[in-house]
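[job 4471] stage=fold_predict status=RUNNING
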Amino acid sequence: MVVDAKDEFASDFVMPALKANAKYQKRYPLVSALSRPLIVRHLVRVAKELSCDTVAHGCTGKGNDQVRFEAGVLALAPELSNIAPIRDLALTRDKAIAYAEEHNLPIEQSKKNPYSIDKNVWGRTSKQARSKTRGMLLETTSGNTPLIQTPRSRLTRSPLPSLKEFLWRWMAQLSRRWRRFRS
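[job 4471] inference complete, writing structure tokens
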């Protein structure tokens, strides 16, 4: 099931974050952290609609996302159980990619490109470490072992043009709705 929650994300999460000037380490927009409560909200809604007693997430045991998902589900639906197959089965990224390829599951990662990229209307994040070599970034896996060098321009792009365009469209849509409501 796919849920289009762009408008909800913008109004309920991005706009309050903008107003609060919420940033990760006082520098970056909260791209991943901001989206998780919305994902959990819809995960719980669908689980209840389908009369599920358990939900699953694909987080590893290494980051904050497992806490965000599991605490969110517990807060919204304490009757639901959480399972985390990747964490619980101790699947490495290579094993998870091999499993997906073996079972024809559509994923963007591959053995040549195993990097995790999280993007939404608010921004984009990926696992990477800075290199002192001419504006390059070393992309890393969980063990922080440099794998390849990628030109900085391919990994970083200001989200402002696309964000401004999105916000203008969103504000125009709200304005049209308001006009229809008033008439």
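[job 4471] summary: The chain has one domain: 6-182.
[job 4471] exit 0
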